Give the backbone structure.
Amino acid sequence: MNRAVLDLLVSFMKIGAFSFGGGYAMIPLITREVVTTRGWLDLTEFIDVLAISQGTPGPIAINSATYVGYKVAGVFGSVMATAGVVLPSFVIMLVLGLLFLKYREVPFVKDMLSGIRPVVVALILSAALSVLSSSVTGIVPAVVSAAVVVAVLAFNVDPILLLVVSGVLGFFMYR
């Protein structure tokens, strides 16, 4: 196993092991590791990866890991980065699932989960703010972003539909 593949495995295992709250909550950790620390992607390319990851089937973290792994070390890098991001979560969820079934009514467990929830919200907000300045680069992207937020929150419009419509609009607007 070459150094790049090992780096991918270890980096994505760290991301997988220390992220709570799903793919959106992982975005700040992936950004720091992939863009800032390792320099595998620049911020613009990473934002494009996030957009593609949201528009394709599967979790954002797995899709991102697969892309980054492929870019850095080909198919084997893709497999190792994807395995790295999945394995810690799989093992942790297996153990926690068994423990939760046994101890779910214990006040300490209830209190601990209540303490984690606000952190997850903060991580998701942090992810949104970290990509905001690179994604909303003018008045048109700002209007589209605001319209999508309103459509999702106020009118419960399907996010997939909004992604498709935004992609089509982007195709015609930025040709």
In short: The two ends are 42 Å apart (CA to CA). The longest helix spans residues 60-103.
